[in-house]
Amino acid sequence: MLSKFYMPTKVIMGEDCIIKNCELLTTLGRKALIVTGAKSSKMNGSENDVKIALESIGIQYEVFDKVMSNPTIDCVYEGASMAKGTSADFIIAIGGGSPMDAGKAIALLAAQDIGQENLFSGQYENKVLPMALVPTTAGTGSEVTPYSILTNHKAQTKTSIASDLLFPTFAFLDAKYTESLGLMTTINTAIDALSHAIEGMLSVKATTVSDALASESIRLIMNCIPDMIQGAEIKNPLDLKQRELLLQASCIAGMVIAQTGTTAVHAMGYPLTYFKDIDHGRANGLLLGEYLKLVEKEEPNLSTRILKVMNVSETEEFKELLNRLLGPREEISSEEIFQYSARASKTKNMNNCVVKPTEDDIKTMYTKSLTN
């Protein structure tokens, strides 16, 4: 079977890595647009470190800090307009998945004229501003993927720009930026990374290489789960070493989905985020156990292999771990189940599934996951 692996991003990891490797930024351009949110990158020190790095090598910068959670199409067009207006010739995106995804879309839109009607077409000129990404959560892996996920109000969902143009040139991973995260944010983002790795193994595009990466990501995250559960129960934060492991696991899982895409779990999670404002990683976690049960029914050898990697004996044991991490679950109505199932069944993610659920399967998974 023909397979390929492509991940051109250079990843630098470690404490103060962006300051210690600031000379790399001189290869990207002469003026940066820093893309970030309004508060978190200022509070965790990442924005200040990026500014120190740029100033130490004489690179000018402007700051676009209007990225909201689940960034909109309008947001990235506004950012691209600022990049053009300030003559920025490269992008540094700082934050969780939202600023990183916004930064990638801004890099594309600042380099070429793309109307909103063609934004998700996949048909682009071979032009993009170079990018460096600085993740401050351990979940999305966006620093090593060719995707930008945006809130699409017209379609009432989250929609992906997918192009190899969106691979960043550099990713700087410094776990100290994640130390200020609350425990539930840490858990939700870790579950997002875990979902990426598991879904990668459940994709029709999975390869020996992507499965090897997914297995290591799963191992790292599962090793941290007992401490996350304990933390959730006694309100005890994770230490820096554990956060480093989660950040590495998130990055590795990003490398996985860069090759495989995501599957039914993401397709079902998007309506929960758009309509119910449930955090993306949490939405995945609410659904992941039931999808793995469906896989167990249709492809038992595949589910057994994943359970073995997780070092759990059966799907119910994994679901119980998720329940302890997530706490009380949200509920949705039968009308919402009908609406969300119809939407999820039509997404491109479903085409990636080794076990492709029917619309009735999706209704069952929503019902078992989100009703009493």
Automatic annotation (TrEMBL):
Species per Swiss-Prot/TrEMBL record: Desulfosporosinus acidiphilus (strain DSM 22704 / JCM 16185 / SJ4)
The reply to whether Oxidoreductase figures as a keyword in the UniProt entry is yes
Q: Which portions of this protein are annotated as coiled-coil regions?
A: none
Question: Which keywords appear in this protein's UniProt record, sorted alphabetically?
Answer: Oxidoreductase
Q: Where is the Fe-containing alcohol dehydrogenase-like C-terminal domain?
A: 186-368
A matching Pfam family: Fe-ADH
Report what the protein is called: Alcohol dehydrogenase, class IV
Q: Which residue range or ranges hold the Alcohol dehydrogenase iron-type/glycerol dehydrogenase GldA domain?
A: 8-174
Q: What Gene Ontology terms describe what this protein does at the molecular function level?
A: alcohol dehydrogenase (NAD+) activity; metal ion binding
